[in-house]
Design brief:
The chain has one domain. By secondary structure, the chain is mainly alpha-helical. The protein contains 9 helices and 2 strands; from the N terminus they run αββαααααααα. The chain has a two-stranded antiparallel sheet. β1 and β2 form a beta hairpin. α3 crosses α5.
Length: about 260
């Protein structure tokens, strides 16, 4: 592991690392995965169509701000011809993820190589952490958490709406309903497993015995937090798959499978 000298410079050990395993594999996969997701998100944002098919709404465009969606799933307030409403909607969930403790570690290592892996020297000569601008802004994560809860609730509402058929009759469900249900569960798992959520629930408690209810909630979110990386990746991949499924249906390329 690189050692920092007293003058702030990185100590020179003569080699980048003494590790003999495939340490570069994880940052490479992370780089490819995050780049693919960003590229897909930019594509669908600027294509700006095929994101709604009664009763399914893409999570990238939820809540629906245009008059292309009925009042039950949208606000119908976004002017036609304006920039894609996804640019407004995605600010909050992306802000929540971009400032997330896990994602910060992931893209610091894979994009900035700071450091690329444990016990591997990074190319930067100095290390300032997150004490300077703009990285000091990562502290807003605790506030983006509240937006994360709000959007998780909105996506849960989309699941309720999805229990209808194409004519709007209740008591029906299709494969799209299941896709959106899994998406909501993964989003909740990722959101509630957030480090800020753990601190909000029990960060100032000195004696758990005096707060049994909060202690139970803390143990629950702590269990989610132990698998926070898995929840982060599963929810990220699934939200793209959910959008793709709805997009294929809306474009007439596939048909929704109805269960009942």
């Amino acid at each position: 592991m690189a050692v920092e000298a007293k003058d702030g410079r990185r100590a020179d050990t003569g080699v980048r690392t003494r590790r003999t395993d495939l340490w570069w594999w994880q940052p490479l996969v992370t780089f490819v995965g995050l780049t693919a997701f960003v590229a897909y998100g930019l594509y669908i944002t600027f294509v700006d169509r095929n994101y709604f098919w009664e009763p399914y709404l893409s999570p990238f465009f939820s809540p629906c701000l245009t008059d292309s969606c009925p009042a039950s799933v949208g606000w119908q307030s976004w002017p036609v011809g304006a920039v894609s409403p996804a640019l407004i909607v995605l600010v909050f969930p992306l802000g929540f993820r971009a400032t997330c403790y896990y994602y910060r570690k992931a893209y610091y290592r894979s994009f900035w190589l700071s450091p690329p892996a444990c016990a591997v020297a990074e190319p930067h000569r100095r290390y300032t952490g997150e004490a300077r601008f703009p990285l000091v802004l990562q502290n807003v994560h605790r506030y983006f958490f509240y937006f994360g809860v709000l959007f998780a609730a909105i996506l849960t509402y989309d699941v309720v709406i999805a229990f209808r058929d194409h004519q709007g009759r209740w008591g029906h469900a299709g494969l799209g309903t299941l896709v959106l249900l899994i998406n909501a569960v993964l989003i909740w798992g990722y959101t509630l497993g957030c480090h800020s959520c753990r601190h909000l629930i029990a960060g100032r408690i000195n004696h758990f015995s005096q707060h049994p209810v909060r202690y139970r909630w803390w143990t629950f979110v702590s269990a989610l937090n132990a698998r926070h990386a898995q929840w982060a990746w599963a929810s990220l991949v699934w939200v793209a798959l959910a959008d793709l499924y709805i997009r294929l249906i809306a474009g007439g390329l596939i048909s929704d499978v109805r269960f009942f």
